[in-house]
Amino acid sequence: MKSQTDLTEPQGNIKSRTARKYKKVWFLLLAFCFSCTLPESELAQPVKILPSNRERKPTLIVGINYIKTLGNPGQGAGEFQMPLGIAIDEADRIYVADAGNNRVQVIDDLGNFITEFGGRGWQRGEFDHPADIALSFQRSYRLYVVDTGNNRVQYCNFVDRIFYPLTENVDNILLDQPEGIGIGRNGEVYIVDTGNHRWIEFNVAGVPVTARGNFGSGTEQLWNPTDLGVDTHGNVYVVDTGNHLIKKYDFSGNPMSAWGGEGNKLGQLREPKCITLDDWNYVYVTDSGNRRIQVFTPNGESITEFSNPALLAPVGVAVSKTGRVFVSDAEANDIKVFQVFRIKLTHLIKYLL
Asked: d(Cα 213, Cα 231) in Å, to the nearest integer?
């Protein structure tokens, strides 16, 4: 049996061992970062970690790196002409608003063609320059298409694939060149009515319940908004393109905050186009005029930016559950794919303890 003196370790040794442990942790962090081979401009800035909104453990975004490109210019299967909005389903299939070809294409994460919807026209199931799409899985599996040139939104389910108009038969709702769409936490549908400088919320029964905005630069005004996203708390984030801002509203449609402003510094925007939120409610914005994508916290704090020399006109953006970011390039007529690199803070805490 060890004596009491054997069980007592000198204080200096404890401090020394602790210091070595911290050095080892930071060495592992540095090794992880360099293994990603991220350009200096793509490294994330230190930010506050958000509390989990879906019972997920907090993570720190280390960086976002380019992976590959999907598709080519053209009119064939897996080819694009002015791809705009993007959505991803639960099986990682990618839905692309192929605006120049007046259709919605579905491809897998390798770029292989799966199926398509639509064709040029004005009848049901036909499109004129579709700008955005959304998928709803809350109450029924539906595909929504913003049929911009026909001033309407159409939807279908995945069983009969028959399209129905969402807005044509709604009293006092006349859309003018709508460009964006989002789905709420309970299946509500949010439409960005670009030409009327407003956004409209429809409940699950297709009845309009909220309309916000008119032309201008004030707190409750918008200038050619192009897209929106909804977080897990029901807050709405609108891309106010003409004012180079992101405007945040609460679940009742009341203004909460705004961030951005025209410029090319981190946190500033120039002609932002589309927006999406990941499972941690981090906000991804295609900063089209600056040829990059920026990431923010829900409060508008800048996290990082990322791009690629071949990225010419980023528009649509979607994030998969595996952390892959798909960005439509409307000028290059393809889809650029990036990967988010994260560290779970709980791993570091357990190691230190």
From this structure: 20
Q: What sections of the chain are H helices per DSSP?
A: 4-7, 11-35, 345-352
Give the span between the Cα atoms of 3 and 350, in whole angstroms: 30
Q: What whole-number distance in Å separates Cα of residue 27 and Cα of residue 15?
A: 18
What is the per-residue pLDDT across 95-123, written as a single tens digit (0 to 9) for each? Answer: 999 999 999 999 999 999 999 999 999 99
Contact 60, 44 (CB under 8 A): yes
- Say if CB 260 and CB 268 are below 8 A apart: yes
The helix (run of H) or strand (run of E) holding residue 221 is none
Cβ atoms within 10 Å of 95's Cβ, excluding its own? 25
> How far from chain centre, in Å, is Cα 193?
19
As a whole-number percent, the residues of the chain with pLDDT over 90 amount to 71
Sign of the torsion formed by the C-alpha atoms of 141, 135, 343 and 70 = positive
Structure tokens at 317: 């953006």
